[in-house]
Design brief:
globular, DMT family transporter, transmembrane helix, AA-Vitamin_Transporters, transmembrane
Length: 295
């Protein structure tokens, strides 16, 4: 397909669908933790996804590209990917889907602050600062709303640390030689290195198996196929034909959908503080990604 200068109906529907895929994944991980230890499950997901990715690359005739200057950034990228999902999967084992989603998807807020100092041409404007204030206010509202029950402060902080790992990945991709390789190679580094790290550290988090059943294995297959491999590749396809800023603007839908699914499917409580935080974080992300109109 030829490149487009704006999001059309197909793009909007596709991005909403991708947001639903990611939102469902939050619930799948939460349920999957009943069958697998979270970090071990994350490692299995990376192993399965890298196998799918290699098969895809061979089918498409995409060569492996280990050009000079990519080894160090590639290892760092994989380590950050592992940290991100150790934090997220552990968080989903210790807090609610609603809280984990809201905090994990503050990544654009964290990245905006880092980009102001590290990336040329991405300085904070007054509108973006307002977005940061609103989004961070939402984070504070979530962290301050604990009254026991399903959510814990430790789980929320783990989800927030996962957001920092995700932001770190974006910075490595922008600031290193990996910015010159294909997205498939960027994903290969993330999956292959993280698979080794995640499986190596997983014994520190308890027994590998809890009480796995058919639904847990189906959930793992969903994570491998729909999220970690083909989901990402579909997103790469969308960003190759639509403006990157337009694609990114749909990211705020995921925490909103995750909260709704957590309430509908898991019966999680959705108090007013969570609803208020959801609104603040979503509005903040929209403002941060909004471009200044030309004079």
């Amino acid at each position: 397909m030829e490149r487009k200068d704006k999001i059309d109906t197909f793009g909007a529907v596709s991005l909403v669908a991708f947001g639903i895929v990611l939102a469902v994944n939050q619930v799948v991980v939460k349920l999957g933790n009943g069958g697998f230890q979270p970090v071990f499950m994350a490692g299995l997901r990376s192993v399965g996804a890298v196998i799918v990715l290699i098969a895809w690359m061979r089918l498409r005739g995409i060569p492996f590209d280990f050009r000079k200057g990519t080894l160090g950034p590639g290892l760092l990228l994989g380590a950050l990917f592992a940290q991100e999902f150790v934090a997220l999967f552990w968080a989903l084992d210790h807090t609610s889907v609603s809280h984990a989603s809201l905090l994990f998807y503050t990544m654009p807020v964290i990245l905006s602050i880092a980009a102001h100092f590290l990336l040329p041409g991405e300085r904070l404007t007054s509108l973006r600062v307002l977005g940061l204030v609103l989004a961070m206010g939402g984070v504070a509202l979530v962290l301050g709303g604990h009254r026991g029950g399903q959510a814990t402060l430790a789980g929320d902080l783990a989800a927030l640390s996962g957001a920092f790992g995700w932001a770190g990945i974006a910075l490595v991709l922008r600031l290193s030689r990996l910015s010159t390789v294909r997205p498939e190679m960027q994903l290969f580094w993330q999956l292959s290195v993280s698979a080794v790290i995640l499986l190596a550290v997983s014994p520190m988090f308890g027994p590998f198996l809890r009480d796995p059943g058919m639904w847990h294995f189906m959930g793992l297959a969903y994570q491998i196929l729909a999220v970690a491999s083909f989901g990402f590749l579909f997103w790469v396809f969308l960003i190759s034909i639509y403006p990157a800023s337009g694609v990114a603007s749909f990211a705020f839908l995921t925490p909103v959908l995750s909260v709704t699914l957590g309430w509908l499917l898991l019966g999680e409580e959705m108090g007013w503080n969570v609803i208020g935080a959801m609104v603040l974080v979503a509005l903040g992300i929209v403002l941060i990604n909004r471009k200044k109109r030309p004079a």
